[in-house]
Automatic annotation (TrEMBL):
Any single GO BP term: mitochondrial tRNA 5'-end processing
Key words of the record: Hydrolase, Metal-binding, Mitochondrion, Transit peptide, Zinc
UniProt name for this protein: MRPP3 ribonuclease
Source superkingdom: Eukaryota
Length: 157
């Protein structure tokens, strides 16, 4: 969390960290001085320890406007499963891909990297006689926010 806050704060992003109240208690996981340093770089909201914090995350993201992005390791599968029909689930996945920033440690493990949210819909797109097709050259299991980042461009002659 500390690395993520520092990395995003360097980009002058306005940050809201959603956590649980146990983070305020000085412990081996949550050092008081580190929490204070993070609170100087971001706003914090602490939910009850037994709360389902995903609802806060979704509400804060939606309420903050269409340009708001969120970072979480959660894949939000439980929320998608609660949606009543396939169209709504499809729209949720599309919204998720456009707003969720994915983070992962660097290969050396010394820093953190982010994959930005998509600014476009990852579906076959056409303009005139040109087709743009997203593809993956290796099959692998993926989560709903992970989509191919390679595109095949085909032009009819």
């Amino acid at each position: 969390l500390f690395d993520a806050v520092n990395c995003l704060a360097k980009e002058n992003a306005r940050l809201l960290v959603l956590g649980r109240k146990h983070m305020l208690v000085n412990s081996s996981n949550w050092k008081r001085e580190i929490m204070k340093e993070m609170q100087n770089k971001a706003e914090f909201f602490f939910a009850e320890n037994i709360s389902e914090d995903d609802a806060f995350l979704l509400y804060a993201t939606l309420r903050s406007g269409k340009h708001c992005r969120f970072v979480t390791r959660d894949f939000l599968r439980d929320h998608k499963a609660c949606l009543s029909d396939s169209l709504t689930r499809h729209l949720f996945r599309k919204w998720q891909r456009g707003h969720q920033i994915v983070f992962f440690p660097s290969a050396e493990g010394r820093s953190i990297n982010f994959l930005p949210a998509f600014r476009y819909d990852c579906v076959v797109q056409t303009t005139g006689d040109t087709w743009h097709i997203p593809y993956k050259d290796v099959f692998e299991e993926k989560y709903s926010y992970q989509v191919p980042r390679k595109w095949l461009c085909i032009q009819q002659k």
